Amino acid sequence: MLYAPSIDLRPFHVSDTAFFARLASDERVTRFIGNGQPWEQQTIQDRVTAALRQDPLDMVGASRWYLVTEANEPVGIVVSSLKDEGVEIGYWVSPDHWGRGIAGAMVDGALATISEVYGTRQLVARVDPANAASAKVLTRRGFQLRSSHDELDLYTLA
């Protein structure tokens, strides 16, 4: 029987930048993000700066990032951002931990944490249609495909 990994989500700190930079520089991780290419150092720094800004949660674009750990080891990043259609979630799993159920555990943790932080259950996620594994993680947790736009599928929590 497969057991869900025991993970913890905590707010992202500046000291987590190196871990995030490793993920953002890894073509396996960025394959389904943006233009599908590893991020340049300036893009990484701009995103980290925005993530640490702590804009008011009722402001469209406000984001909160979380470092995900298992046994105190970083295994991924969960991001959230207030959009017009709801709070968008995203997750990046370190390739060293793929195939272990980490993404599902991360989304489970995000559902509770992010809903509480933003005070809403209106959660959405955008997924590259070629990323079947991510779509499967979301649909197993109650997300439904709502639309496709700009070459991305929009899932909403039912």
Automatic annotation (TrEMBL):
One GO MF term: acyltransferase activity, transferring groups other than amino-acyl groups
Superkingdom to which the source organism belongs: Bacteria
PROSITE patterns membership: GNAT
SUPFAM superfamilies: Acyl-CoA N-acyltransferases (Nat)
PANTHER family named in the record: GNAT FAMILY, PUTATIVE (AFU_ORTHOLOGUE AFUA_3G00765)-RELATED-RELATED (PTHR43792)
Protein name: Uncharacterized protein
Organism of derivation: Arthrobacter psychrochitiniphilus
